[in-house]
Amino acid sequence: MPRGSVYPSESRYFSDEATGARIRQVTDHPSIHHHPFFFVPAYDDAMERLIFISHRSGRPEIYAEERESGRLIQLTEREGIGEYSIYPSHDGRYVYFTAGTGGFRVDTETQREEQLVDFGAIRLRESGMVADAMGTTALSFDDRYWALRFSVDGCANLAVVDTENGDSNVILQRDTIAHLMFCPDDSNLLYYAGPLKDRVWVIKRDGSDNRRLYQRAPGEWITHEVWIPGMRELAFVDWPHGIRAVQADTGVERRVASFNAWHAICNREGALMVCDTNFPDIGIQLFDPRDGIGEPIALCEPGASNAGDHWGGPFPYEDGPIAVNAPQHTHPHPSFAPDSQRVVYTSDRSGQAQVYEVEIPENVKERLGNGTG
């Protein structure tokens, strides 16, 4: 199917049986669909479009739902798209992505593609389903800088592309680089995940001040790091014990939550966090990341299969990487819409992974105070 193809709305509404929350199923084609990774926004700031991946053509392509009309528009027609590399720009003009050995962006209005960088004989992602195998990229919150990683001869490289003039620079080379994320309060500061036993690192955009932000203790399972807006804090999951945070400038640590939060992300004000859960799956939860308690309030039960049996035991990588079966489209990966009034997630509850959007009920907003805007 060619880029620019337009499909009618596939939306249908239903209520969550556990909480009564109103849910909209966005996609309904019998193929794999998912929104961007949980720390990547699925919407532009104006919420004109919801960006997602669809396999309806037999391979992953980037699609946009026009929220006003409900139409689904195919933005790309390109083989080898890194489906978790996609990053919509905040201004709504582009979606950035990797494919083959290059980095691209596609215009959301015209579907015109532009190649920003070509790294030649490299690997943009590693084999497998976790960490550097996902090939996630990062866009600064002012849309000026795009960070991506690639490997050459077994060495990981971190490159930053200036989206205005096209300049690109490799700012770091080391053993492992994954899960890039610009600080929402500072476009000169990046988080990246190092090796599985030493994940929490930050670096300045020019490549200086590369440093470990948190020293893992033996046996700890540290994962799913995200920034808390407005605080220059990096939150991380201490699986399955909860969430902790460390201040990027002072190194001060604190407790955020004490339940089995799995993939967790803040809204843009930093006043509210959403997460999925596993072992046990108690559904998608909302909580306050600021009060040091993080009492969870149930939003909905996505019914996803949450593939990945390794999550049910102790840290499995103490003696090195292992093969795991954890297809990412089976995980909800919830994240907020810019208005903080709804949450997008993925679920394979119907037998195929589809994209869903759940509205935060009024009674839940009241319990959360002013966290929903």
Q: What is the CATH architecture assignment?
A: 7 Propeller
Instruction: Give the C-alpha Rg.
Output: 19 Å
Globally, the shape reads globular
Mean pLDDT: 94
Just give the CATH class.
Mainly Beta
End-to-end distance? 40 Å
Instruction: Describe the sheet with the most strands.
Output: 5 strands, antiparallel
Helix segment count? 1
Note the beta-strand portion. Answer: 35-45%
Q: CATH homologous superfamily name?
A: YVTN repeat-like/Quinoprotein amine dehydrogenase
Q: What structural class is derived from the secondary structure elements?
A: mainly beta
Give a brief rundown of this model.
The chain has 373 residues and is mostly beta strands. The chain contains one helix and 30 strands.
Polypeptide structure, described:
The chain is mostly beta strands and 373 residues long. Helix content is 2%, strand content 41%. The protein has one domain: YVTN repeat-like/Quinoprotein amine dehydrogenase (Methylamine Dehydrogenase, Chain H, 7 Propeller). It contains one helix and 30 strands. The strands form seven sheets. It has a five-stranded antiparallel β-sheet, with no helix packed on it. β8 (87-88) and β9 form a beta hairpin. The protein is globular, with a radius of gyration of 19 Å. The N and C termini lie far apart (40 Å).
